[in-house]
Amino acid sequence: MSRIRSLTHDVREIELALLEPAAIGFAPGQFVSFEIEREGGFSSTRAYSIASPPSRPHLIELLLNRVPAGPGSEYLFALREGDLTTFKGPVGSFTLRDGTRDLLFVATGTGIAPLRSMLWSLAESGSARAVTLLWGLRSQRDLYYQDELEHLRSRLPRFSFVTTLSRPASDWRGAVGRVSSLVDASITTVGNLDVFLCGNAAMIRDVRDLVRRKGLCPIHTEEYYDDRAESRPPPC
Questions:
Q1: 42-49 sheet: strands from edge to edge
Q2: Cis (ω within 30 of 0) for the bond into 157?
Q3: Which of 51, 57, 86, 161 sits most deeply, having the most CB atoms within 10 A of its CB?
Q4: Closest CA to 221 of 134, 93, 50
Q5: Which residues lie below 8 Å from residue 54, measured CB to CB, with a gap of 6+?
Q6: 153 phi and psi, to 5 degrees?
Q7: CA-CA distance, 134 to 221, in Å (whole number)?
Q8: What does the alpha-carbon distance between residue 15 and residue 50 come to, in Å, rounded to a whole number?
């Protein structure tokens, strides 16, 4: 563990500097997994999307949400700078591909992680693709990466983003409501669109249905599971 950064009251960004091997290649959107030893002599696998771009192959950044009684959350939040850990991967097919199609990214919570990797990759390559990010959070205390997204907007001339809060305080002047409510107004045509959805199952279901009512286009999904679940499949 080379760096820890607290982003909100319950969200942390951790940076892992690689030792063996000293660098890895990965595609924006892929994930790594950890084997968490638990009481009773058995282990659980927990998968986390890489939030950093592939241009820095000597390290990876992960985005963590603190989940009480969650094996992955408890293990990774307990790590301190200088601690050693191991992981498997990277793997996963929820990846950004080269092309010219417009991009719609929709996330809830820490589902922003793989989309952040994609956004930085697009910015570093000088992409001219039109990119829209819609991100749903709960309240003002859950906000993070807003300044970074503004910076990315300066590097991606056709990038726009909206962060919506489902439970804002009265002084919030931004978008209000579930992120799925923003999708319909954001899509005029799907003929030249790729859609990437990452977050909870309800959002993915609702947005996928909304997009399909507009027509047919590629829809890529990554569902985030409750860390407390006894059986948790890796991201698809």
A1: 42-49, 31-38, 88-91
A2: no
A3: 51
A4: 93
A5: 25, 26, 27, 28, 117, 121
A6: -65, -30
A7: 14
A8: 10
Q: What are residue 150's phi and psi, to 5 degrees?
A: -60, -40
* Residue 41: half-sphere exposure toward Cβ, Cα within 13 Å: 0
Cα 48-54-60 angle, rounded to 5 deg: 45
Task: Determine the 3-state secondary structure of 206 from DSSP.
Answer: helix
Q: Which residues pair with 50 in a beta bridge?
A: 62
* 176 token code pair: 């209000």
pTM over 0.85: yes
Question: Is the N-terminal amide bond of 90 cis, ω within 30° of 0?
Answer: yes
Distances (CA, A) of 90 to 7, 20, 43, 56, 176: 24, 14, 20, 14, 35
Tokens describing residue 151: 């910076």
Give the span between the Cα atoms of 168 and 39, in whole angstroms: 39
pLDDT tens readout for residues 172-206: 999 999 999 999 889 989 999 999 999 999 999 99
User: How far is residue 59's CA from residue 135's CA, in Å, rounded to a whole number?
Assistant: 26
Summarised one tens digit per residue, pLDDT across range 199-230 is 999 999 999 999 999 999 999 999 988 786 65
| CA geometry: angle 171, 175, 28, nearest 5 deg | 125
